[in-house]
Amino acid sequence: MTASSPAVLLRAQGISKTFPGVRALHQVNLEVRSGEVHALLGENGAGKSTLMHILAGVFPPDEGSLHIDGKAVSFISPQAAQAAGVAMVFQERSLAAPLSVAENVFFGRQPVGRWGVIDRPRLHRDTLAVLAELDIQLDPHNAVEDLAPAEQQMVEIAKALSLKARLLVLDEPTSTLTETETTTLFRVIGRLRDRGVGIIYISHRMAEVFKMCDRLTVLRDGEDQGTFEVGEISEEQLISRMVGREFCYRQAEQVRPVTAPTAALEIQGLSDRTLLRDINFQAHAGQITALAGLAGSGRTELALAIFGARPITAGRILIHGRPVSIRSPREAIRAGIGYLPEDRKEAGLFLEMGLAPNFGAAGLDRFGCWWLDDRAMEEQAAAAATRLRLMNLRAQSVHELSGGNQQKIMLARWLLVQPPIFIVDEPTRGIDIGAKMEVHELLRKLADDGATVILISSELPEVLSLADRILVMREGRLAGEIPHAQATEESILRLAALPHSTHAHA
Amino acid sequence: MPESTSTPINPPAPVTRKGGFRLTRETVLLLLMLAAIIGAAVAFPRSFPTWANLTALLRNMALDGVMGCGMVVLMVSGVFDLSVGSMFSMVGVLTAWMMTSAGLPPVLAIPAGLAIATLGGILNGWMVAKVKVNALIATLGTMQVFRGIAVLVGGPGIANLPPQFSRLGQTEWLGLQSPIWLLLVVAVIGQFLLARTRFFRKFYYIGANPKAALLSGISVEHMQIFAFALMGLLAGLAGMTFAARVATATSTSGDGAELRIITAVILGGASLSGGRGTVWGTLAGVLFISLINNIMIFARLSPEWQSIIIGCVLVIAVGMDRFLGRKK
Fold this sequence. Notes:
The complex is a heterodimer of chains A (about 500) and B (about 325). With about 500 residues, chain A is an alpha/beta fold. Chain A is about 35% helix and about 25% strand. Chain A contains 17 helices and 20 strands. Chain A has helices at about 50-55, 80-85, 100-105, 120-135, 150-160, 180-195, 205-210, 235-245, 300-305, 330-335, 345-350, 355-360, 375-385, 405-415, 435-450, 460-465, 490-495, and strands at about 10-20, 20-35, 35-40, 65-70, 70-75, 85-90, 165-170, 200, 215-220, 225-230, 265-270, 280-285, 290-295, 315-320, 320-325, 335-340, 420-425, 450-455, 470-475, 475-480. In chain A, the strands form four sheets. Chain A has a six-stranded mixed sheet with strand order 6-7-8-3-9-10, with helices on both faces. By secondary structure, chain B is an all-alpha fold. Chain B is about 70% helix and about 0% strand. Chain B has 13 helices and four strands. In chain B, a hairpin with a 2-residue loop joins strand 2 and strand 3 (about 175). The chains are: A alpha/beta (about 500), B mainly alpha (about 325).
C-alpha cells in the first residue's frame, strides 16, 4: 500500500510503565512510518491507552525512549507532544461544544487582526481550506454541538491537521459511526495518509483493520506481541495473539423452539414523535430475538420506548397477550422488563460508587423494605462477582474497572432482578474478547432458561451467532425479518441499508 | 473457555470496607473544630467552656441545622435550593399574619404555615424536576418571589405574636431550649433515614448518575420533588420556630441563610455534583460555622473575620479533599 518511502516517523523503544500494583507496559516497541496507517490491537487492559497517553505526553514512561524523525524526544506535557506534531482523537470529544466549527479547528490559534480582534473572514477561509484538504463538507459557522458525532470527529481531525500534526492517533474512531460515516472517515484517513501523516489506529473491529491498515502491532497484558504487515497475518492468528488462545464465534446450532402459545412481548403499532413509525413485532420466551440495523435506525429508541424511558405517541405493548401501561422504567421493571443500556458509562453505571451499590441499583427492594441491608447487598454482590468471574473486587469505585468488568456489573444488576423480558443494547461494545465470550454464554443461558432476550447489536457476527430470530430496522421502521436459514451478514446489511427515496416525515 | 480476562486477578474475598483511617473532609473538619475548641478553652477558660455558652452556641446553630438536614438531601441528589432563607422569613411572616391580622388560632395557623412551606417546596421541585429549569435559576427566582411576599405581607415585621405561639419557641426542657430539641429530633431521624433507608438511598443514586438511576427504575422526578418539598417544610418549620423564639416575625430574618447552609453542607462532605453527603457531616459543618462565630465574639474580633475564616476553610477543605481523596 505505501508507495512513499518508508521513512520512520515514530520509534518507541523499550517502553515500560508501572502504576501502583499494575505493570501496564513492559518493554514495548512501536514503530510508525510516515504515510502509513498502523493498527494498535489488544484487549481492553492490554496497555494501549497507557502507551497512547505516553505518546500524548500525559505522563512519562518509566523506561524506554521515544524518537521522532530519528531525534530523541521526551514529552514533559501534552503541549510538548502537540508541538512535536502528535495529535490525538479520543473517543471522548475534546471540543468546545457551543463554539463554531471554525473556532474549534483553530482553537486558541484564531487569526487575529489589529488590537487582537479575531479576524473572522480569515478564520472561516482558513477553516474552509483545512476542510477542503480533507474533503470534508461542513459549514465553518455551525456550532459543534449541533453536529452529528461523526461530524464532530471530523472537526477533531481537521483541528489536528491544522496543528500540522505528523502523527495522528485515532482511538476507536468508528465505534459510534454509521456505515456511510465510516466510509467518509476512511476517505479522510486515506487523504491524511497520502499527505504523509502517520496514523495510529486503535480499533476492536478486525474488518476495519484489515481494510484500512498497512501494518499492525499487537499488545497483550502490557507486552508487545510483535508488528506485522497486514497481509502476512490472518484474522485467526491475530486474535490468538491478542488473547493468547484461539477464538471463533460459535455459530448458533439450532433455533430454540417457541413453546408458549402467546408471545411474551408483543408490540403493536408503536410510534413516537420523531423517529419510530408503526412498529409491530413479537418476541417469544426462550428465544433470543435480535434487532439489527444501522446506527440511527431507531433500535435504541425502540428499546427505550418499550422500557418507558421515551414517550410514545401511538401503539400498545402486550405482555403474554395482556396490554400493559408503561410510562416509566420503574413501571417497565414492575411489568418484568429489564434494559441493559448501550452506553454503560453514560446511562448505566454509577461510576463513583463501589461494586455493591452498582450491583443493587435496580433491585433495592430485595434488600429490605424500609431499612436497606447493606451487608446483604455486599455479600450478594460478591457472590455475583465470583459467578461472573469479575476480577478486582477491591476497586473502590467502578470507574477503576475495565470495560469488560463494568459490563459484567451491569449484567449482574439485571441478573439480580431477573426480568423475564431482557433487552440488551450492544452488550459487548468496547469489551475484550474474553469478556465478550462470557457475555454471549450468559445470554444463551438466559434464553435457555426461558427468558425473552432481545438483542440489539451492530456487530453482525454477534447477531448471527446468538439470535434465533433476526428483525431488521431501518429509519425508524421495522424493515423486515430474516429467516434463520437465509441469515448472513450480507442479507442483514442489504435489508438494513436498502436505499430509501423518501425520508419519513409525519 | 477463557482462563481470565486481562485484568490482574485479586483474590475475591474481602468485601468489607477499608478499616484504616482515612483523612476525609469530615475528619479534617472535626480535627479543626477540636483544635478551635481547645484553643478557645485555653484562651477564655472562664467564659468559653461553660454550659451557658454551650447552649447559646447550640441555639444559634439549631435552625441552620434543621435546614441543613433538608439541604443535604437535595445536595446528595445533585441539586440545591437557594430559596430557603426567603422561605424561612416568608413562612414566619405568613404564620404571624394569620395569627394577628386574620385572627387564626396557632393550632390552625401553624399547620397552614407548614402547608404553605411544603407547597413552595413542591413548586421548586416541580420546576426543577418536571420543567427541567436549572435548580440554581429556579430557586434564585423563588428566592426573590418569597422575599417579596414576606415584605408585602409583613412590612418590616410582625410583632406581638400570641403567647401560646411564642411559648413554643422559648420553652426549656432539661436545660435546652426548644429549637435545640427540634434540631436533635430532626437530625436523629434524618441521619437514620438518609443513611439506612431504601427510599433515601435512591437520592445517592440520582446524584451519582440521574440517567442511570432512571434506567434502574428510580422515579427521579418524584424523588426530587419530594426532596424539595421536604426542604420547604423544614425551612418553614425553622422560620416559624425562629418567629416564636423572638416573638416577632421579621421579613429579613432568613436573609443569607441559603449560602451559609450550602457552605455547611459542603464542609460536611457533600459536593455540588451530588452523590455524597451525610446528616452528621452537615451538622458538623453547621457547628463549625457556629463555633467560629462564637469564638470571634470572645476574641472581640469583628464579625467580618468570621466570614474570612469560613471562606478560607471552605476553599481549602474542598481543595485539600481533591488533593487527598481523588487521586487516580
